[in-house]
Design brief:
This protein has about 375 residues and is α+β, with helices and mostly antiparallel strands. The protein contains 18 helices and five strands.
């Protein structure tokens, strides 16, 4: 029986070989005919079981080839679809592609670009443009566009316009600021106009600002001149234009006479410091008080009023705290701050302490309306 099986094995092997050879030849000739069912059945009945690894090398090679083709296609698509040139084109046309104008919706445009830039070089260029000063953004982007051979680049023109608007807005802000023209209010109409024209000619940075001189000069009245300045400020989104108010304010009549700052009534003293010593210390800082007033009337020539300061003085004679009192008719905040600072610098004699509190009543006026500045000869002590 064993011999019979051995004798049938070569026959089955030969038969299997012939069947495989015929199938290969049929595939080579691309013959569409199918094998007869009988032959297929016979091959199935008589052929031994095929080892699982007979066709494995062929299958893996096929799948490997397919994988290489797919990966190569993806890489090629990436290289073609997200090149630096394409990124620069996206940046240059970002306003049209995103629907967000750079001057009003810059953050939205930037967000859109971050989602659509595909190369590190493209992201780096846009970061450089965003981080540059407003005046330098157009040049930075133009340099990148030239490197990528992208022309035209519409966003360059937008950045140039934004930079020009920025310069003009800065000029308008300065024209509207009282810090630029501290003496404007104290001047007459002709002098006010001359001050504006001189500043425009010497200090403006935008060519458009120089064009503003003619409308200001041609305005028929101070109110018309104020309207010109206010309209420009509104157009350029300048929040407030104080000098427009100044231009339409009548010129104040200056008060003649030397400015004086004096005690107009007896100081109230509570504590160990003697009242005459308090008066003496205030007289020592009177030049500093007058300087505060002189600076104030350069801005507001008609400024007069009363100012009461509350001082706390330690046993060493040093002012450790100052604050405005309840009676205060000086309408200029900067002047009040300056007067308080001058009083804080006063030096008084040592005293038993612990803390002396003093109310110092000052008058800001002019010598010809109040008489020569005087101080009370015999200041009284307030009752404790």
């Amino acid at each position: 029986m064993i011999r019979a099986r051995a004798s049938r094995a070569p026959a089955r092997g030969a038969k299997f070989f012939m069947l495989r050879l015929g199938a290969r030849m049929a595939e080579a000739k691309k013959t569409p005919k199918a094998k007869p069912k009988a032959a297929t059945a016979a091959a199935t009945d008589t052929a031994p079981a095929r080892p699982a690894t007979d066709d494995a090398p062929l299958g893996w090679r096929t799948w490997a080839l397919v994988g290489v083709v797919l990966v190569g296609g993806v890489i090629a698509w990436k290289l073609l679809g997200t090149s630096f040139t394409r990124d620069v084109q996206s940046i240059c046309n970002a306003e049209q592609l995103s629907g967000h104008p750079a001057d009003k919706e810059a953050s939205k445009m930037s967000s859109w670009l971050r989602d659509h830039l595909g190369t590190p070089e493209g992201n780096e260029l846009f970061s450089s443009v965003s981080d540059a000063k407003v005046a330098d953004r157009a040049k930075t982007l133009q340099d990148g566009a030239d490197k990528a051979h992208v022309s035209p680049c519409p966003l360059v023109a937008t950045y140039q316009r934004i930079a020009a608007d920025s310069d003009y807005r800065v000029d308008v802000q300065r024209l509207c600021s009282t810090f630029t023209f501290p003496k404007l209010l104290a001047s007459d109409d002709a002098t006010r106009l001359q001050m504006l024209e001189d500043w425009i000619d010497k200090n403006s940075i935008s060519p458009r600002t120089k064009d503003l001189a003619d409308p200001l000069r041609q305005a028929a009245t101070p109110a018309d001149r104020a309207k010109v300045l206010r309209d420009v400020a509104t157009k350029m989104d300048v929040f407030s234009c104080e000098n427009a108010k100044t231009l339409e304010t009548p010129t104040p009549m200056p008060i003649k006479g030397e400015p004086v700052v004096r005690l107009y009534t007896i100081p109230q003293v509570i504590g160990g410091l003697q009242a005459p010593d308090l008066v003496k210390g205030i007289q020592d800082v009177q030049p500093a008080l007058v300087d505060c007033y002189k600076k104030a009337i350069e801005r507001k020539p008609d400024l007069v009023g009363h100012f009461t300061a509350k001082l706390e003085i330690d046993p060493s004679g040093k002012v450790i705290k100052d604050s405005p009192g309840e009676e205060n008719t000086v309408s200029d905040h900067d002047t009040v701050v300056c007067l308080a600072h001058a009083l804080r610098g006063a030096k008084f004699p040592t005293n038993p302490g612990p803390i002396t509190t003093a109310l110092v009543p000052l008058e800001l006026a002019h010598a010809d309306t109040t008489g020569a500045p005087t101080t009370p000869d015999k200041p009284a002590r307030a009752e404790k």
